[in-house]
Structures are given as structure tokens and as C-alpha cells.
Amino acid sequence: MIVCVCKSVSDRKIRASIAEGVDTFEELQFELGVATCCGKCEETVRQTMAESGVCASQCGVAHDRPAAQPVTAAVTFYGRKAA
Question: For the CA atoms of 81, 16, 18, 39, what is the dihedral angle to 10 degrees?
């Protein structure tokens, strides 16, 4: 299923990134570009992370908060080393 329409990112691609070691929402944003355009996919991406067992490592999903409450996240920049 396509989760991020803007960047054409599927739930399979998100799960594959998690399997490769991505364990924070910010890293997923950097690697896949999810939730960087319109932001409508953010909640679904975070939920996919929680379903994949990454929630304990800062996915940001709080299951007891009301859906209307805004979610804030710290911004972290990751750099890639040249090959």
C-alpha cells in the first residue's frame, strides 16, 4: 500500500528500511522523504513504525493521546559519507 503519495513510498519500503536499521521517524524522513511535502502521511508512517516494533525507539506514537492533538518532533539532520 502506498503510504506517502508525494514521494511514492509504500509500507513495504518503510518496513524494509526498518529492517535495515532505521529506527527513528527522522531517519525515515531523511532516507525516504516521507512526511516532507504535505505531511498527510506522518501518522500512518508512525503507525507503521509502531506495528514494526520500532515504537520503543522514538517513533513518536502515543496510543492514548487524542487524534486532534498535534504531534511535534525534534529535527535531526543526517549526513552521508561519500563512497
Answer: 90
CATH number of the domain within which 34 lies: 1.10.10.1100
Q: What is the DSSP letter of 55?
A: G
Task: Identify the sign of the CA torsion 50, 53, 57, 63.
Answer: positive
Distance between CA 39 and CA 37 in Å, rounded? 6
Q: What is the SS3 assignment for 62? A: coil
Cell numbers at 71, concatenated: 504531534
Find the domain containing 46 and state its range.
Answer: 1-83
- pLDDT per residue of the chain (83 residues) written in tens, 0 to 9: 999 999 999 999 999 999 898 888 999 999 999 999 998 999 999 999 988 887 654 555 554 445 556 667 677 777 777 66
